[in-house]
Amino acid sequence: MVRRLLAGVLAVGAMLSGAVLVGSAPAAAKTVAVSDTLLPGQKLMTLQSIKSASGVFTLTMQRNGNVTLLQRGVTQPLWMSGTYRPGSVLVMGADGTMRIIYGRTQIWSMGAASPNAKLVLPNTGLMAIYNTRGKAVWNRHMVIGTLMAGAMLRAPDTLGRDVTMYSLDHVYTLKLLTNGNMVFLKNGTTVLWSTGKTEYPESSAWIDPNGLWGTYSRDGDGSWDFHTHRPGTVVQIRNDGSYLLINGRTIVKKFV
């Protein structure tokens, strides 16, 4: 059944007038130069940001708990966490993983295991996590291992917002093609599974908090889905070639 997305899911608040340095008070935003880097242990709290040196790109923890990467002059976010819990905090973990914490609960994570890595927002807008050797181990076009509720995969579009999911060893990928077909690949070429939906350019895919995993057209109409009816379910691809929906320790659905 085709489902219309709630308008509020993709709604993003207007861009904030001033960005603040991590740990600084909002009142100081206009007089303090903003860093382009989030170091291990540093946080973004409500209305705090990091910004590229050019000032063109800004990563902000919004009032509604959604973290957005915005480009000056562009209304749509280039990337967002998809989390909507006011009062949440983005933390750059010492293990190389970004986490969003609500109260004492981790509600979202993204990145790759790499001790003492840092998050950098360069002038290109290609937000990435760099290890201590200066190598990017994650960037905004990637999801590694597990797709949590709210995080999104995207097909290529004119804004360059495509996001692909990778197994930890990068052998297996789950991605949306330009025609909207979601495919599970080995070594980037061998198709192991697909939705077969090929008439939906600029599609996106995510699993919602209630366990509905699906793909959606650029207009928000559902094109394919699988409903687990289990809140908290996540999508996972593993190094052994498994593509799964998992709730806690229980495999709810094995596609491959």
Automatic annotation (TrEMBL):
InterPro entries the record matches: Bulb-type_lectin_dom, Bulb-type_lectin_dom_sf
Keyword Signal set for record: yes
Superkingdom, taxonomy of origin: Bacteria
PROSITE patterns recorded: BULB_LECTIN
Keywords: Signal
Residues of the signal peptide: 1-29
Domain Bulb-type lectin: residue ranges: 35-142
Protein known as: Bulb-type lectin domain-containing protein
Species this protein is from: Kribbella speibonae
